[in-house]
Amino acid sequence: MSDGAPDSLIPYDEIVQEALRAVVGRVLGEIQMGGSQLPGAHHFYITFKTGAPGVDIPTHLKERFPDEMTIVLQNKFWDLDVTDVGFSVGLSFNQMPSKLVVPFSAITAFVDPAVDFGLQFQAVDADDAAAAHEPAENDAPEPDAGADVLPGDGNNVVTVDFGRKK
Q1: Cα angle at 28 between 27 and 33, to 5 degrees?
Q2: Which value, in Å, is the radius of gyration of the alpha carbons in the chain?
Q3: What is the SS3 string spanning 55-74?
Q4: What are phi and psi of 104, to 5 degrees?
Q5: What is the pLDDT of residues 45-72, one digit of tens each?
Q6: 73: which residues sit within 8 A by CB, 6+ positions away?
Q7: In the 8-state DSSP scheme, what is residue 165?
Q8: pTM for the whole thing?
């Protein structure tokens, strides 16, 4: 028997990461719908990979933060726009207004210190984002001899009865 967990054909890690990034999107969307005003003492630290696909930040920030950058959404931000794939926001750096576009896939951390809440994400490399999954080895299963095959439009639909054990 092996000590490690078996390899899964279901990308659970990716699914969980995507779901957690959706939390960030929902929180930012709620702030956008509320007129971009943070309630109470809430404020956010958002860390992201500056070289990730889809990130668009001014050149001077990319030069200063070639790998990763943390922004703070608290008092002075504007034009928060949240989409299904990311967000854009206006922030000031050394009194220079800047617009940042950040896809959710580039985020590596999201923290709201006012309520001691934080999420960390695995970084998505450009190679990983474009890589396709290997096809499953069971793409065309043979119908089980003991199962009933229903007639239809050519699809193999198999009905299996999971009866109770007595």
Answers
A1: 100
A2: 23
A3: CECCHHHHHHCCCEEEEEEC
A4: -60, -30
A5: 999 999 999 999 999 999 999 999 999 9
A6: 31, 38, 43, 44, 46, 80, 89, 91
A7: P
A8: 0.70
Q: Structure tokens of 115?
A: 């309520």
Between CA 145 and CA 58 the distance in angstroms is: 63
Single-letter amino acid, residue 145: A
Domains along the chain with CATH numbers: 12-129 (2.30.30.220)
What phi and psi values does residue 93 have, to the nearest 5 degrees?
-125, 115
pLDDT digit string (tens) for 124-150? 665 544 444 444 444 444 444 444 444
What's the token pair of residue 80?
A: 């928060």
Contact between 88 and 100 under an 8 Å Cβ cutoff? The reply is yes
φ, ψ for residue 100, nearest 5 deg: -120, 135
CA distance 44 to 72: 6
Label the pairing between strands 68-73 and 77-82.
unpaired
User: Rounded distance, CA 119 to CA 112, Å?
Assistant: 9
* Tokens read off for 145: 């001899």
